[in-house]
Specification:
With 191 residues, the protein is of the alpha+beta class. Helix content is 29%, strand content 38%.
Length: 191
């Protein structure tokens, strides 16, 4: 597994990097045979250290965890514990999906844009209906089953996930509803 361990405006020593690699490897390999890579970023938020970890699994799933503490090692240990709990929670599902899937998840490229927020007063009408694009990025859309998409959304802690439905070969959306349930949008194909 490849590791990318960095700090945002803080120095990360060799001892911390070794600790992160050993602990994260032990936590992840219990639940996944071939994790691809792990990105761990340390930062400072006032008096606390924040640790954010993202692990890409060979099944195409991405698991994310974030924790903070007054000590940098404690922040990582809490983050690693959250990751372990998340992976343990989905262990059975991960194994079931991995057995069915002989190839890694196929990814389709797409453009992703960030639009400027509208600042309007009560009586002001917008000058144009065209939004202002402030950033453009490349993103990947995975080809998954609906169950895998829900699991991916929950592992990533995301409110919404766009995916290509393997059974219908069309774009679908799963999202977390305000009532706590999961919504699924499956567009009709044109006749």
């Amino acid at each position: 597994m490849r590791y990318q361990i960095s700090g945002r405006q803080i120095d990360i020593g060799a001892a911390l990097q070794t600790h992160v690699e050993e602990q994260l490897s032990a936590a992840i390999t219990k639940y996944s045979d071939n994790p691809i890579d792990a990105i761990v970023i340390f930062s400072r938020d006032a008096y606390e250290f924040v640790c954010e970890a993202t692990v890409h699994l060979s099944t195409g799933l991405t698991a994310k965890a974030k924790a903070s503490a007054t000590e940098i090692y404690a922040a990582f240990d809490a983050c690693c514990e959250k990751m372990d709990k998340q992976m343990r929670r989905y262990k059975r599902r991960l194994k079931d999906h991995h057995k069915d899937r002989s190839e890694p998840v196929e990814l389709m490229g797409a453009a992703s844009y960030i639009l400027a927020a509208e600042e309007q007063t009560e009586d002001a009408e917008p000058e144009t209906l065209q939004p202002i694009i402030i950033a453009e990025m490349e993103t990947k859309i995975p080809s998954l089953s609906v169950g895998e998409a829900v699991m991916q959304m929950e592992l990533a802690g995301a409110p919404v996930l766009i995916f290509r439905n393997e059974s219908k070969d069309g774009l679908n959306v799963v999202y977390r509803r305000d009532d706590g349930n999961i919504g699924w949008i499956d567009p009709q194909t044109g006749n």
